[in-house]
Amino acid sequence: MSQVLTVAHLSDTHLGYRSLSKEDPKTGVNQREVDVYHAFAHAMRAIQEASPDLVLITGDLFDKKVPSIWSLRRAFRVLRTVQEARAGKPLILLGGNHDTPRTRESSAVFPLFEEIPGIKAIYGMPEEVQLPELNASVMCVPAASAARLVEENLQPEPNPRFRFNLLAIHGVLQGLFTHDYTPFFLPLSRVLDERWDYIALGDYHDFRRVSRNAAYAGATEFTTTNIWSENREKGWVWVELEKGKHPTIRHRVVPTRRVVSLPEIDASQCDSTDEAVEKVLEEAALEAIAGALVRVRLLNLPYAERARAQRAIVERMADAFHVQVDFRAVLRTAPSAEGQQAQAEVAQPIEDRWRQFVEARREELPAGISVEEVISRGLQALGAVGEVVSL
Prior knowledge:
Purple Acid Phosphatase, chain A, domain 2; six-stranded mixed sheet; 2 domains
């Protein structure tokens, strides 16, 4: 039996994710759903070629609890192909907060994948998966039961009967990240533990090594409501474990649709709206925006000029996949009674309030309509009519 255990850690693929209204010309499927699938398929082909002893998928394989048939069929085919090539070596699939039904009466798709040799799906209660052929044990905590770590004062424990002990869990660690819409955080003391050979984390969409033996694999594509804040490289994690040594953890990048956030332009520093637009286009010329998701930020542009500016920018950047134009008012300075400069207060930007409003109601949206699409269209409408800001 090998003294080294190799692991491929993948997470947050969000198959079935849809955004914007463009369709793939070959399939007629939402183009972003196709993008997300291609990133997943690329990652799985790379994992197949690497041929690890164990594959861990730590949640949110799908973007919704009931995924589209298009993505479900393709996920099954990809996983079946990979498992056939791996001769059925272990693959553990955790349920995430996006793809796990909230009630027992709702059906989950995970049992379907257990028809593929070597796949074990954990989507309800915490469960230890023992892999004697690898001399390894994996304690699995899916999203549906992560809160039990606190509610029932549980502490996952390694199994001393096995050479290798791994913890796989879907959730956001307390204190490490700022997530406005995360209802629950995992206490560090219940998760980070030096006794585990590797802690495979899911839910956070950027690759991040949080301790010597723990890492978030990150997502394989851009699927959050604020893609502009995410790291530009997506992928999966290759892990090598050898008893008595620190784990080797390497991030493997997969190709994605390009995301470009252009430097903000302050229109108050320009002589005209046309000059501000030209400055935006100059910045765009420095980037490879063809086929990309692009964000433009224009500060302090008069409300009456916003619709004209947006039309001009979108028309001149027609080779981009999508252009989001954000208009903002910024804190201004005004003379104080003592003659010093003091900042005038502004209300929270309406764009932020709109994002929060839609995100809080994601479960109320009709099937087939994504949070990101509603947010994007709302931002475009706000740009056309202007916003009201209390100064």
